[in-house]
Amino acid sequence: MSDYSMNELGKKSPNNHHDLDSNELNELRLLLLGIEQSKLNNLYKRLENPEIQPEDVSKLLPEAVVLRSKQDRQLGEAMIRTVEDAIQGSVKQDINTLSEVIFPIVAPATRKAIATALDEMIQSLNQTLEHSLSPESFKWRWEAKRTGKSFAEIVLLRTLIFRVEQVFLIHKKTGLLLQHVVAPQVATQDPELVSAMLTAIEDFVEDSFNVARGNGLQSLKLGELNIWIEEGPLGLVAGVMRGNAPQELRSVFQEALEKVHLKFTDELNDFDGETDTFITSKPYLEACLRSHYKSESKKKYTYAWIFLGIIAAILGTFSFFAIRDLVRRNSLITELNEQPGIVVIKSEQQGGKFIVSGMRDPLAVEPKTLLQKVNFAPKEVVFQLKAYQSLEAELMTRRAKKILEPPDTTSLQVNENGLLQAKGSASHEWILKLRQLWSFIPGINKLDDVNLISSELNQLNSSKLDIEQTKILFEEGTTNLLPNQGKKLEKLKLNFQKLFTTAQSLNRTARVRIIGHANTKGDEKTNIILSENRAKKILRYLDDKEIQIRQIRTIGVGSARPLKNQSIKINTQEDMAKANIRVSFKVSITDTKE
Known about the structure:
Layout: H1 3-11, H2 22-33, H3 37-47, H4 54-71, H5 74-93, H6 95-131, H7 135-147, H8 151-159, E1 160-171, E2 177-182, H9 191-208, E3 219-222, E4 225-231, E5 235-243, H10 248-263, H11 265-269, H12 282-286, E6 291-293, H13 302-338, E7 342-350, E8 353-360, E9 381-387, H14 393-404, E10 410-414, E11 419-426, H15 428-437, E12 446-448, E13 452-454, H16 455-468, E14 472-473, H17 486-505, E15 508-516, H18 524-542, E16 552-556, H19 575-578, E17 582-591
Parallel strand pairs: 8-9, 11-12, 11-13, 15-16
Antiparallel strand pairs: 1-2, 1-5, 1-6, 3-4, 4-5, 7-8, 10-11, 14-17, 15-17
Helix pairs in contact: 3-4, 5-6, 6-8, 6-13, 7-8, 16-17
């Protein structure tokens, strides 16, 4: 029937006994439309106003949605698809937006679920451990085996004082189930069937024993189960419990029932079989799911914590040794890889031993010497390293030193490019050996011996320098030596011997000129003869089998080459030295082939 026809009915005179009474008409509208006609008329008038603004529409929408929702579910079903599309579009556009919105809800719910599950697990574990060795435990184990339940479940059942397992919210007038909650780990039957049975039992008792309405059934006992019922004006709460619950629990049921009546009065009055409205009553019913055990396991989980502590200690010890071994193994591998000439290819734990496979240069460090550094016992590690020749600079340097055996005065160094650098001094013989063998050393492709000096050549140059710096002094006008020149002659002779011996070993020729000098006094011709005689006298002194006399020449220059930069101290005995009465030496060294 349309709103228009309903309005027309309402306009007929109330004095007409054939017309419907206005109250009856309202009831008819309420039955057919599910809402009050006055509210509809008011809403239509406000929407038909041509001056209505968008903000006015926004104010009317909530009321319109509520009124439409009371009619049927079409609005909800229409909005479901729209909301689903909106959510899908939001997720595709930016998933973070939806996650930020639901995070405040999901996170607390997740924490609560985890805390509840953990608490139940600890409680069950504590009860099980506490009674696992008691005399009753053997009977309980047999019961668990017989009934197919777990031992922990039997322990909980036999140690509890009471536990509310199920709570039913039932519509009083129709006897239909409005809502149902169950405690964790409780097996249930069809809740609607249980609700119908309770209603049937109550009706049977009232009819059979002439019990007045309002004095309903308050409790039932079936074996280990008790059923408590609390009635209200429009609904009732029935709790199924195990054990002996205190009477104070009834006040909890009553409080839950009062909250349901307070919030759902209209829904209970207008109940037409739809129970979705009563989903939000679950928290009130869940408050009735209480339990109490003989031991206060809620606060003191002695056995559980001891057991968990032992497990934690075992796991901690195992983890400690496992982590320690892992750290030691990693440290050993790192230490090996840092050593030149050692390459680790594979490492594994096998048969209680740590096996390291790879390659090692024979000149590399011995791996076993590194074990103590990383806290490994020698018997704990097995090395399987094959020999190879490393081309690392440090190893090539060691190899060059081992093959060439350089003297202490020589340093060898190989760089990353394979260049062998030889520095310092060495015997001529060793230098020849170096130049012959360096190319046979693996990895070395070039020799740099510019800074390597032959020790014999050093000695040759030293002897040459000593001889040229020597000055033999004579008395004036004679070939007689000054009294203090004897030691000079002895040293001079040794230097000549070294000069010729060293030059011969180097395949070189040493030539010496002995130069006689005179001062400016007297005739120059006489001075030249005198200076030459002085030179020959020194030559006769040097005549020795180790001195090649044929390589020595004498010459007299008279006063033609006076001393420059006089360095001889002047005193009364050396006055003649000041006048250049001396013999000097000049040494030249050439290759023998020249």
